[in-house]
Amino acid sequence: MTEILQAAHLNKYFHEPETFQVLKDITFSVSKGEFVSLVGKSGSGKSTLLYLLSTLDTNYEGNIVINDITVTGQSQNALAKFRNENIGFIFQFHFLLPEFTALENIMMPALKLGKYHRDKVEEMAMDKLRQMDMHSFAKKPSGKLSGGQQQRVAIARALINDPIIIMADEPTGNLDSGNSKIVFDIFQNLSRNHGNTIITVTHDTDFAHKADRIIELIDGRLAK
């Protein structure tokens, strides 16, 4: 299978209150369409690693290549453009604007990208809502939706620019088991039927073990 992401010899340090190495010589790759779970105890470095891979954190040693583009060393403006075009990021807390409708929240990244007219963006956003089975809530303010519904809107927002990789940090951390299963099923469908690569940090053991592969971190190193 085609490798979509390569991470080579990643090292990451925190310097407050004193210097501490949180990631230690991390090297691995992820294939196109693969569904990967990053797991490990609290403090193992899994969320830190995800933020490096997503280009949100650029203060590290090593090299990251995504879709044959070396993202290490690029400017913040170039990385912001790259993220918007290639990476959909889903947080544990959905970060929707509560006064805006579900549809408006989903449209924002595409309007920012500026590739399509607003009417086309609205059509694309409705398509993503249908994919999440949330189209009937398109005009509802996101602040009026349930937690599970908000997370599905957040996933649709992450998908609006058709990213090659979806990265998620504890996407089911605030959800009950029923909504967690819905999120997993969405991710599995995106991976198997749409070719999206999924990399997700999770504490949910059941969720992790249903993914294609588990990458475990122990004290900042990849588990053997």
| Spatial gap, N to C terminus | 23 Å
Number of helices: 7
Quaternary status: single chain
Determine the fraction of residues in helical runs and give it as a percent range: 25-40%
CATH H-level homologous superfamily name: P-loop containing nucleotide triphosphate hydrolases
CATH-defined topology: Rossmann fold
Beta-strand residue percentage: 25-35%
Instruction: Tell me how many strands there are.
Output: 10
The CATH class is identified as Alpha Beta
Please list the strands of the largest sheet in the order they lie side by side: 6-7-8-3-9-10
Shape summary: globular
Structural class by SSE content: alpha/beta
The radius of gyration is 17 Å
Number of domains: 1
- List the helices and strands in order: EEEHEEHEHHHEHEHEE
Q: Please tell me the overall pLDDT.
A: 90
* Main pleated sheet: 6 strands, mixed
Detail the poorly predicted runs.
none
CATH architectural designation: 3-Layer(aba) Sandwich
Structure, explained:
It contains seven helices and ten strands. The protein has 224 residues and is α/β, with parallel strands linked by helices. The chain has a single domain, classed as Rossmann fold (3-Layer(aba) Sandwich). A six-stranded mixed β-sheet has the order 6-7-8-3-9-10, with helices on both faces. Strands 2-1-4-5 form a four-stranded antiparallel β-sheet, with helices on one face. A hairpin with a 5-residue loop joins strand 1 (3-14) and strand 2 (20-31). Helix 3 packs across helix 4 (118-131). The protein is globular, with a radius of gyration of 17 Å. The model has no long low-confidence stretch (mean pLDDT 90).
